Amino acid sequence: MKKHYVLSINSQAEHDWDKCIIRNPITGERPDLKSAIAQAIGNQPGSYLVSVQIEVEVLEKVALSSVANGTLELGGSTKENKQVNLPQIIASRS
């Protein structure tokens, strides 16, 4: 199963927990990786030694300044870029 997340890295963040954040791109929630691993083994009781393989492919990179001001510019290489407000997208999905 392939899942998509938004990874934000900001070495200038005020708090350590804000320096590297991974979020669901639709809901904005932080993923619960423990639950995803438990689901992969069928949530069966017991203790398991597991191997987890993480493969990362960067689909798009957005400048940190765009994320900080709450906007995301979509469209990459086209002339018709569309600017959207991230909080409005997340709120509209709720």
What does this protein structure show overall?
The structure is a single chain. The chain has 94 residues and is an alpha+beta fold. The chain has three helices and four strands. The strands form two sheets. A two-stranded antiparallel ribbon has the order 1-2. Strands 3-4 form a two-stranded antiparallel ribbon. The longest helix has 8 residues, at 33-40. The radius of gyration is 17 Å and the shape is elongated.
Q: How is the topology of this model organized?
A:
Blueprint: E1 6-9, E2 20-23, H1 33-40, H2 64-68, E3 71-74, E4 82-85, H3 86-92
Antiparallel strand pairs: 1-2, 3-4
- Return the string of H and E elements: EEHHEEH
Order of strands, widest sheet: 1-2
What's the end-to-end separation, in Å? 24 Å
- Which term fits the overall shape? elongated
| Average predicted local confidence, pLDDT | 76
Number of strands: 4
Strand content: 15-25%
Number of helices in the DSSP assignment: 3
Main sheet makeup:
2 strands, antiparallel
Structural class: alpha+beta
User: pLDDT under 50 segments (min length 5)?
Assistant: 75-82
Q: What is the count of distinct domains?
A: 1
Radius of gyration from CA coordinates = 17 Å
Helix content: 10-25%
How would you concisely characterize the structure shown here?
The protein is of the alpha+beta class and 94 residues long. It is 21% helix and 17% strand.
